[in-house]
Write a structure and sequence with these properties.
Elements lengths: L4 E6 L5 E5 L2 H15 L13 E8 L8 H8 L10 E8 L5 E7 L1 H8 L4 E2 L2 E2 L1
Antiparallel strand pairs: 1-2, 3-5, 4-5, 6-7
Length: 124
């Protein structure tokens, strides 16, 4: 097949983890395994997860449902698009401040780390 396999590991649950050098090589390996083994093996290609960010000291009125809309409306300089931000949950610290955890795309993460967010009447 002429594929450069980086690592080949057997996992505890009976699965086999194969790492290759590029996505093209993974696709070739995927098609070869599917052609030879068919329904005997299940193939899962891992996907990268999005980064999570914590926004500190958000207002009390902010909820997980309305957070995405407020952030997109008040921070037009970030050029955010629908689906770039996904709110996960909020939590309170011992000092009774509320924090928000969001999941963002890689390009959105870079923009947010270099800017402060305006949320309602506070800068977070």
């Amino acid at each position: 097949m002429k594929i450069g396999i980086r690592t080949l590991k057997s996992l505890r649950n009976g699965q086999v983890l194969i790492e290759a050098d590029s996505k093209e090589e993974l696709e070739i390996l995927n098609s070869q395994i599917h052609d030879k083994c068919g329904s005997q093996l299940e193939i899962n290609i891992q996907k990268r997860r999005n980064s999570r960010l914590i926004i500190y000291k958000v207002p009390e009125a902010l909820t997980t449902e309305n957070a995405e809309g407020i952030i997109m409306a008040q921070n037009s300089n970030l050029n955010l698009q629908e689906g770039d931000i996904q709110t996960k949950y909020t939590f309170k610290t011992r000092r009774k401040t509320k924090n928000l955890v969001i999941e963002v795309m890689p390009h959105t993460r870079k923009q947010m780390l270099h800017n402060k967010l305006k949320i309602e009447w506070t800068v977070c």
